[in-house]
């Protein structure tokens, strides 16, 4: 009986934590990573700011959990992007278009803020482990996705590293034309698929 109550309490806490992170993600997407506050999240979630800190020890921890939810949403979107009978070439083009759009629309200061969180997490073993698990899951999914279009996992890693690099360049102010980025990525993936 006591175990059942403890399990219900634990489930409630996890659901509450997720709800807070989902509200934070919505605020991040509307206000930007650098411009939302813990007060905004508390107000949006209907809890006190002190309650937020019972679930998340810092704003960075909340951002990491919210990023995990964003990754889940992206995975769901990518898996439902096109019908199964769509050709590899069309799937590749749709994925490239999605990546190009994300790179174009994601604010540079938000990318820099994400890098700052990553760098600062080196000193926090718990947060570093949380980030490591999150990125491991994220990249495993991406490599599986790319493996449909490229000859092996190493090539998938190189392709994803190139796309991540484009995001890094964007974060420091290098601009890309979405059409040129799409056509360049299509060319590269086309060569890999040939």
Automatic annotation (TrEMBL):
Domain (HTH tetR-type) ranges: 14-74
Protein's recorded name: Transcriptional regulator, TetR family
This protein's UniProt keywords: DNA-binding
InterPro entries listed in its UniProt record: DNA-bd_HTH_TetR-type_CS, Homeodomain-like_sf, HTH-type_Tx_Regulator, HTH_TetR
DNA-binding region boundaries: 37-56
MF terms (GO), sorted A to Z: DNA binding
């Amino acid at each position: 009986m006591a175990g059942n109550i403890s399990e219900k309490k634990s489930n409630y806490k996890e659901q509450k934590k997720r709800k807070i992170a989902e509200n934070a993600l919505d605020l991040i997407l509307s206000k930007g990573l650098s411009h939302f506050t813990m007060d905004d999240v508390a107000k949006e979630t209907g809890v006190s700011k002190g309650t937020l800190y019972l679930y998340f020890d810092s704003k960075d921890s909340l951002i990491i959990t919210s990023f995990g939810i964003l990754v889940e949403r992206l995975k769901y979107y990518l898996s439902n992007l096109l019908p199964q009978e769509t050709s590899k070439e069309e799937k590749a083009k749709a994925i490239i278009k999605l990546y190009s759009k994300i790179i174009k629309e994601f604010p540079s200061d938000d990318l820099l803020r994400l890098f700052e969180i990553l760098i600062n997490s080196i000193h926090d073993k718990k947060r570093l482990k949380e980030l490591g698990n999150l990125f491991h899951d994220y990249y495993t999914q991406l490599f599986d996705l790319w493996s449909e279009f490229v000859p092996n996992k190493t090539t998938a890693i190189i392709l994803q590293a190139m796309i991540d690099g484009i995001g890094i360049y964007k974060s420091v102010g290098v601009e890309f034309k979405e059409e040129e980025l799409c056509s360049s990525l299509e060319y590269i993936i086309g060569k890999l698929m040939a």
